[in-house]
Design goal:
The structure is a single chain. By secondary structure, the protein is α+β, with helices and mostly antiparallel strands. The protein has 17 helices and 29 strands. It has three domains: 29-134 and 185-236 and 241-274, Aldehyde oxidase/xanthine dehydrogenase, molybdopterin binding domain (Aldehyde Oxidoreductase, domain 4, 2-Layer Sandwich), CATH 3.30.365; 281-439 and 589-736, 2-Layer Sandwich (Aldehyde Oxidoreductase, domain 4); 443-582, 2-Layer Sandwich (Aldehyde Oxidoreductase, domain 4), CATH 3.30.365. The strands form seven sheets. Strands 3-5-1-12-9-10-11 form a seven-stranded mixed beta sheet. Strands 7-15-14-13-8 form a five-stranded mixed beta sheet. Strands 16-17-25-26-29 form a five-stranded mixed beta sheet, sandwiched between helices. The structure holds dioxothiomolybdenum(VI) ion. Residues 207, 238-239, 242, 345-347, 349, 503-504 line the site of dioxothiomolybdenum(VI) ion.
């Protein structure tokens, strides 16, 4: 295993977009400029519920450089906001500037447009709003216990629903995880440019240009082909750019009303209230097992919040249904509407939260049974999916345990908690599993082979940072057997063929499969041209020819070979181009597909102050074949850092008196800094999954974070004997006297 790891390190690895990013050449949405562009700055509600009685705008209107101010009385009538019987999927999001009703603190209520950004910021500060305030409900814990607002229960039952109370050992735990925000480095931004009444070009931070194109077309009653969305570079997103938020519409509305391009960039504060977040959650898990470690019953219930105007749910409890072999499983999940903005998927939506409960419960059970936590997982491992009874396409969890156990030094883990000290620090080890759905979505890729030997691939996917561009170059260069410097992969523009939303760790398999198909087709086209235009091959059929390293020959040994550039030259063609599709992964009742990960953590805890130092993380991934080691490793490291944040530092906190975030800045919302992040070792099983797709890959982005937080919590328990179940683990929680 270690050999593979070393091979990758020695390989010629590059980041396709690295130079552009570090030299500042890369244009992110906020960097885009067009002729005659104006700047919009949003004014946001300072109450959580009620309505606007009056807006005092004259001071802002008279401020220097102000062009106009848009709000509910002078906005565009957006076709997509109107109820439509024919539309099976009506718009449920916030209808910006549609009426005077306030649904959340921080809701955008006006857009000030000026000739410079600074002047727009200043004028926005001069807008005065009088509200009629109504009582708001933002306290998740209080409302969950009260229970009257809980809605849409989703119940799953298998076997005996009381089994969690039986067995030789039983564990019951409750977990509270606060709201977490994505807060990518790059803020959300939109630059809207109308060309006439029915053509719209939008530069937008989005994880799916094609999805944004479809949404904008629908909202503004345009034909999709008349909407172009451009997203050259994305500076992180983690899920926040999986839909078009109201600010996107605000820019489009203003640009339309003014007949001039309008750029709108969210402030850091607005990043907390306008582009979603991981919902707050409560979970209770009860789990029982026989003496030999075999699970008897699991009962896992969860509640997570949504907004008052839109339902958002995620698969928090699903993993408990299938991660382990257990005859009796009950899960229950409900959502709780609050007067705050709508959540959205955030890195490993569902499993990141669910793993905290399931994987800590298993850890707790391991102590009760006196069975090593890894051993306990092996005892309950399953080769078939316990819900559907289908096999997994591939599953290498056992390999993950073995690799990680070695690397972290699991043999040093004390069997009894709070018994190991290093330099007077309580020291412990923990591990946990992560999982996420894998598959292959639809993607189209166009390949253009140029007479000069270069090949350009195009797809309307975006690359939010995982390294899609690099991975596609690797795949194409392997398929075409040519140096990757001869290849370009162009993305982030709806003028290119359909590319999927970059989400759910699915871009690589979808787009990569289409790249492979396009390469196959290119090779066929080259062979066809060779038969037509090369005298020596005229008597042959295309399938008699062999493609090797850019050359066509009639047999591998034959010295008679022609490079594709010569063939194009003889054919008198400037280029060859083909467009191919990935096609959906046909589960067709035969397989289940998941990526898996196992994370290990070592922590040191100060016995007096309760300060935790995460001193080592080992993340092992069963993500199929690793296409680009450099970028895959970076994704794993980023996920581990996110997991450290989830366990140790991150919490978006509301002041319920005002229903307002008091942490809406990166000084008070703590993401891990360098000092919080230890050495992170990343290991890959690197075994291909050819059932899902010809790329052999599964997916990495989500399993990189899912399981990290519980691994740390389990290490803290091992170090201190304290089971912390309210995240994040601030020192006060460890020095509380029980
Ligand atoms: Mo991911 S939460 O699908 O960006």
């Amino acid at each position: 295993m270690d050999d593979l790891y070393l091979n990758f390190l020695n390989a010629d690895e590059e980041r396709a977009d690295g130079l552009a990013k570090v030299t500042g050449k890369a244009k992110f949405t906020a960097d885009q400029k067009v002729q005659g562009m104006l700047y919009g700055v949003l004014v946001c509600s300072t109450i959580a519920k009620g309505y606007i009685k009056n807006m005092v705008l004259y001071k802002a209107r008279n401020a220097p450089g102000v062009v106009d101010i848009f709000y509910y009385l002078n906005s565009l009538s957006v076709p997509g906001f109107k109820p439509d019987d024919k539309n099976k999927n009506p718009y449920r999001g916030l209808k910006i500037f549609h009426n005077n009703i306030i649904h959340s603190n921080g809701q955008p209520v006006a857009l000030v447009v000026a000739d410079t950004y600074e002047r727009a910021v200043h004028a926005a500060s001069l807008v005065e709003i009088q509200y009629h305030q109504e009582p708001h409900v933002t306290d998740f814990d209080k409302e969950r216990i009260n229970g009257s607002r809980l809605k849409s229960p989703e119940i799953y039952e298998r076997g005996d629903t009381e089994a969690w109370q039986k067995g030789d050992a039983r564990v019951s735990l409750e977990f509270n995880i606060p709201i977490e925000t994505h807060n990518p480095l790059e803020p959300h931004a939109t630059l809207a440019v109308w060309e006439g009444q029915d053509r719209l070009t939008v530069y937008d931070k989005t994880q799916g240009p094609k999805v944004t194109q479809a949404e904008l077309a629908r909202m503004f009653g345009l034909e999709e082909k008349n909407v172009r969305v451009i997203t050259e570079f994305v500076g992180g997103a983690f899920g926040s750019a999986l839909r078009s938020w109201p600010h996107v519409y605000a820019a489009v509305i203003a640009a339309r009303k003014l007949g001039r391009p309008v750029k709108l960039v969210l402030t850091r504060e607005q990043m907390f209230t306008m582009v979603g977040y991981r919902p707050q959650s409560w979970q209770r898990i009860s789990i029982s097992a026989e003496k030999n470690g075999k699970l008897v019953g699991i009962f896992h219930e969860a509640v997570s919040n949504t907004s008052s105007y839109e339902d958002f749910r995620e698969g928090i409890v699903n993993g408990s249904q299938f991660l382990y072999q257990c005859p009796n499983v009950t899960t229950r999940y409900q959502i709780l509407p609050l007067d705050i903005n709508t959540p959205i998927w955030m890195r490993a939506p569902g499993p990141a939260t669910g793993a905290v409960a399931l994987e800590c419960a298993l850890d707790e059970l391991s102590y009760a049974l006196q069975i090593d936590p890894i051993e306990l997982r092996l005892i309950n491992d399953t080769d078939i999916h316990p819900v559907s009874k289908l096999p997994w396409t591939t599953k290498y969890l056992k390999e993950c345990y073995a690799l990680g156990k070695e690397k972290i030094g699991w043999k040093n883990r004390p069997a009894l908690p709070a018994t190991l000290k290093e330099n007077e620090m309580l020291t412990g080890y923990g591990m946990a599993v992560g999982w996420f759905w894998a598959g292959r979505g639809m993607a189209n890729v166009k390949a253009i082979l140029k007479a000069d030997g270069k090949i350009i691939f195009q797809s309307a996917v975006s690359d939010m940072g995982p390294g899609t561009t690099t991975a596609m170059l690797k795949i194409a260069s392997e398929q075409m057997e040519i140096d990757h410097h001869l290849i370009r992969f162009e993305l982030g523009d709806t003028d290119y063929p359909f590319g999927p939303m970059q989400g759910g760790s699915g871009s690589l398999t979808a787009v990569g499969s289409a790249v492979i198909a396009a390469c196959e087709e290119l090779k066929n086209e080259i062979k066809k041209s060779a038969v037509e235009h090369i005298t020596e091959f005229k008597s042959l059929k295309p399938q008699d020819l062999i493609y090797q390293k850019g050359f066509i020959s009639s047999s591998t040994k034959d010295s008679l070979k022609y490079h594709y550039t010569e063939i194009l030259d003889k054919a008198g063609k400037e280029e060859l181009n083909v467009t191919k599709s990935s096609g959906w992964f046909e589960r067709s009742g035969k397989y289940e597909a998941h990526s898996f990960s196992v994370h290990f953590a070592k922590v040191r805890v100060h016995p007096e102050t309760g300060v935790v130092h995460v001193s080592h993380i080992v993340s092992v991934a069963d993500a199929g074949k690793i296409i680009s080691y450099t970028t895959a490793r970076s994704q794993m490291i980023g996920g581990a850092v996110g997991g450290i944040g989830m366990a140790m530092t991150e919490a978006a906190i509301l002041d319920h008196r005002y229903g307002r975030y008091i942490t809406a800045n990166l000084a008070d919302y703590h993401i891990p800094v360098h000092a919080d992040v230890p050495k992170i070792d990343v290991l890959f099983v690197n075994k291909e999954d050819r059932i899902i797709s010809p790329t052999g890959a599964k997916g990495i982005g989500e399993i990189a974070i899912a399981g990290v937080a519980p691994a740390i919590l389990n290490a803290i328990y091992n170090a201190t004997g304290k089971r912390i179940t309210d995240l994040p683990v601030t020192p006060d929680k460890l020095i509380e006297r029980s």
